[in-house]
Amino acid sequence: MKQLLATVLASMFIASISAAEPVTFELKIEGPDGALTDLPLWLTQSDAPETTGKTNAHGIVRFTLDSTKSAEILVRPGILRRTENENDGAFGERIRDFRTRCRTLGLPEYWQFRVDLNQGFISKSVTVPRGLKLTVRPVGIPKFVDPQMFLTIPGLPRDFNQDRRSPSFSRFGVPAGEATVGFLEVFEQRRPKRAIPFNVPASQTDIEIGDVQVLQVKDDAKITVHQTWTKATDRPVIQRGAASLIVGCTLVSPDGSLILYNYLRADDPSKGPEPSRATFAIPAGTFYVLPGYFNATPEQVAIITRLRAGQDLSENKLPMFTVASGEEKSIEINYADLYSAIHAIEDGK
Question: Hey, CA dihedral for 127, 128, 130, 132, is it positive or negative?
């Protein structure tokens, strides 16, 4: 009888785990003129499939969370997939509406929340400011060179709302009232990819930065980067909504004025701690190593901001190397160690 009772209780326990109660997550989004209605959104929770929704007439959207998954969730604005019976005109109208919102609102790339999945109902709210036009004038580009350029603002979508009309270059959707840093990214064929930082003041009106000097660099040295993982589980820890982190490497000069980056050949971390590697040309000099292809992530921006402020980080555990003209050098980076070094600097350790 005791054995039977134990078996029944064990079965009930297993059933209770497998039938874990779903959690309702409610997000309210306010804009500069009231509730943001009909805003398309995507929610990501760990390795669970993405779910979609739209805000209602009160600016509220509700998602169902899996209580057995990660407590860290991402919600990002984005055009929802085309429905089976949606015609070209209706789908095109949705695309145009979303792009207009990206120009007139300071919509972030995503909102990140850490929630208590022991609660049956979770409610959060966010406010979206007006979006401003930011204009710079790239100078120092040689004649007959027409590089591809992007204006990147930390926390904003990377590819939306770029408007290049020589000699100026603009992007929209920059949040009103927020001081930040901007990056002019320059891509030239057979040249190192680079970004030039500049300060963006807090403003309630469109922002004119003026001249941004495009630094000309020589690719007279070579660096081979070997990327390793401590263990396969490092991947979701450091990915956090920015897939580019796992496929690149960023180098920053000691004064933070020059940022170089390139893709690596990314192996699948889920198959084990296999390295990824790439050899690419860079100018001779001294550089700090940051994780990931440059995407203005919080960790990348934190270090660049400190360097631009004149802080010497050479005594910290952040990797640094010097390569001379004509020299070829090989370095190894471990993403877990890189993040530990950055977090230690931020924590003042």
Answer: positive
